[in-house]
Write a structure and sequence with these properties.
The protein is built from 7 helices and 9 strands. With about 260 residues, it is α/β, with parallel strands linked by helices. A hairpin with a 3-residue loop joins strand 7 and strand 8. The protein binds adenosine-5'-triphosphate (ATP), pantothenoic acid and potassium ion (K). Catalyzes the phosphorylation of pantothenate (Pan), the first step in CoA biosynthesis.
């Protein structure tokens, strides 16, 4: 039996969605979460050449938007389920207060399990940057939450009189010494951002080594940061749809529909 499943990752800036049929991502896109309420209805009807989804499975860190997706799915008579810490199937969680955890972080850990054996670290560069550590010994262990790139750069402009907005699409200088206000901000934000992540990976790795006795793999998702890829993550594997893949992996249990995702 094959099923068409709509996966949704509701974040603070955007909702990312992917339509899967068997093991294939057949369509994907983003809806913007700021301002007016999101409208999922176009995704819940047949969209030539794609059929309407048989089920919806989502992770959300914005409760107000979860409610919209839930109601609109109900109206369309399509079952809709949300990932929670109690619904993570093969992922063991070793965390003092799992109710606090953003379901997107759990989805990233599940997505990681599809592509790697623990120990591994998942880095997700969205509105916030999250690092999550999954150990062979304990499963989901914890991680770090840090400012996303936009917070880092926009804060400077908002909180100062003399600093101009940084145009993210035209950054020239990412290293060395800035010799204008713009250049100084470009170096500070881009090199600073890459350095922040590098340092977080180092400290997370150190602790994972003490737990598992070996170094973790590092998987990266989120953001369209080509410059980070060039300047630093160059060697690290980038999975653009890791969160959605993690969400999809729970479809058989939560929706009773085959996900077709290739789990290890
Ligand atoms: N090429 C880029 N260079 C620098 N910053 C970028 C780039 N593209 C996006 N950003 C900024 O970095 C942040 C994270 O990127 P992205 O757009 O992927 O977030 P998001 O996936 O929408 O976040 P969330 O999932 O939390 O809603 C955004 O706030 C965005 O403004
Ligand atoms: C950190 C974010 C904002 C990243 O999207 C999200 O996972 C979230 O709101 N988490 C809740 C707090 C936590 O994960 O501990
Ligand atoms: K996200």
């Amino acid at each position: 039996m094959s099923a068409t499943i709509l996966t949704v990752d509701i974040g603070n800036s955007r909702a990312h969605w992917g339509l899967f049929s068997d093991e294939n991502l057949i369509a994907h896109g983003n809806l913007t979460s700021r301002g007016d309420a999101l409208d999922f209805r176009p995704l819940l009807q047949p969209n030539s050449p794609h059929p309407a989804p048989d089920g919806v499975i989502a992770c959300s860190v914005v409760p107000r938007v979860s409610q919209v997706l839930k109601e609109q799915s109900e109206e369309a008579s399509i079952p809709c389920e949300f990932l929670t810490h109690e619904r993570v199937g093969p992922l063991r969680i070793h965390y003092p207060k799992p109710t606090q955890l953003g379901p997107d972080r759990l989805a990233n850990a599940l997505g990681g399990l599809i592509h790697a054996e623990p120990p591994f670290i998942v880095i997700d560069m969205g509105t916030a940057v999250t690092l999550d550590a999954i150990t062979a010994t304990n499963g989901y262990e914890g991680g770090a939450i840090a400012p996303g790139f936009a917070f880092l750069s926009e804060y400077l402009t908002e909180k100062t009189a003399l600093l101009p907005p940084l145009d993210l699409s035209r950054i020239h200088r990412r290293t060395g010494i800035g010799r204008s206000t713009e250049e100084a901000m470009e170096v500070g934000c881009t090199k600073g951002f890459a350095g922040m992540i590098r340092e977080l990976v180092a400290t997370t790795t150190e602790e994972i080594v003490t737990i598992d006795g070996r170094e973790p793999k590092v998987l990266v998702t989120g953001g369209s940061f080509n410059w980070v890829k060039e300047s630093w993550i160059g060697g690290l594997p980038f999975f653009p749809h890791l969160t959605l893949e993690g969400v999809l992996s729970r479809a058989p249990d939560l929706l009773g529909l085959p996900s077709g995702s290739k789990s290890k």
